[in-house]
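Example 141, ligand protoporphyrin IX containing FE.
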Amino acid sequence: MQISEPHSSNQPAYGSGDTSFQAAGGEDGIRRLVDAFYDQMEQLPQASKIRAMHPTQLNESRDKLARFLCGWLGGPKLYREKYGPIRIPAAHSHIDIGIEERDAWLLCMEKALQSQPYADGFKSYLMEQLFVPAERCRNRD
Ligand code: HEM
């Protein structure tokens, strides 16, 4: 799939409407990204601690994160449709998250993004944007 850089042409910038959802390849692309993300979490030694916080079977975690990201990126609100309303910081308040855990989560995402056919500008945009909710999940340090 050819994905163009919104800033290099007259297309709307990421973050407006469903531009980011489309740049991520829609629901299918986001599910591929989330699969790659959890594959990284299973493999990276730096992520073993946060992997252990998750259930043994990651099917539902994959489904939840993919559905959440669809809406968060301006696409359909698929998380709410299936699981109801969510606030990301509150959903993590019972989980012990410090700088190390936050950075391990972001590292999994960074590695997952590297394997996706996205424009480089979109990858760096997503990492910057995801830092915000990741930091809001932090309840220690
Ligand atoms: C900052 C580091 C983070 C850590 C260590 C972390 C860890 C976790 C854990 C252990 C769960 C529970 C998994 C389960 O029971 O299935 C979870 C759930 C979830 N996380 Fe995170 N998370 C982090 C950041 C984020 C961010 C930044 C997002 C969104 C952009 C996110 C989205 C979700 C969603 C949608 C769920 C499912 C919530 C539910 O339905 O209960 N997480 N996370």
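Summary: The pocket of protoporphyrin IX containing FE is lined by residues 50, 53-55, 60-61, 64-65, 68, 83, 88, 91-92, 95, 97, 101-102, 105, 130, 133-134, 137 (CB under 6 Å).
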